[in-house]
Amino acid sequence: MAVKPIDIQQVNPDVGGIYEAIIVAARRARQIHNDIRIELNQQLETLAQLTTTVDPEEEVDVSANPDQLKISLEFEKRPKATEYALDELMQGKLEWRRKEEEQPVEKEAPEPDDAE
Fold first, then answer.
1. Do residues 15 and 21 lie in contact, with contact meaning Cβ atoms separated by under 8 Å?
2. What mean pLDDT is predicted for residues 78-87?
């Protein structure tokens, strides 16, 4: 897989800065990676259910399953999650918001009781 350099200075100007852009892209890449991993696991589970044998004593060489190998190779050929995330960031498709910093609440002095 070839290295694809990116001019980080041309990132969407809505981003606060370079470091913030990297954090946003990294978090999005993590989300994309999790989605891809779930999809891969679902396909492998479906394949495993189709290839399970009725006789538990019959041994099956799971490592030599060509369908499983084909699915794994398809997922390896896909672009990495980071590449998807950076493309979304560069095209302005990502929406995010900063966490609101909690403002310290000042305790008000109790009002004196006018019990005269």
1. yes
2. 90
Residue type, 82: T
Residues 40-56, mean pLDDT to the nearest whole number:
76
**Number of neighbours of residue 23 by Cβ within 10 angstroms:** 14
Q: What average pLDDT score do residues 51-66 get?
A: 61
Residue 8 CA to residue 90 CA, distance in Å, equals 9
**3-state secondary structure labels for all residues of the chain:** CCCCCCCHHHCCCCCCCHHHHHHHHHHHHHHHHHHHHHHHHHHHHHHHHHHCCCCCCCCCCHHHCHHHHHHHHHHHHCCCHHHHHHHHHHCCCCCCCCCCCCCCCCCCCCCCCCCC
The pTM for the full model equals 0.66
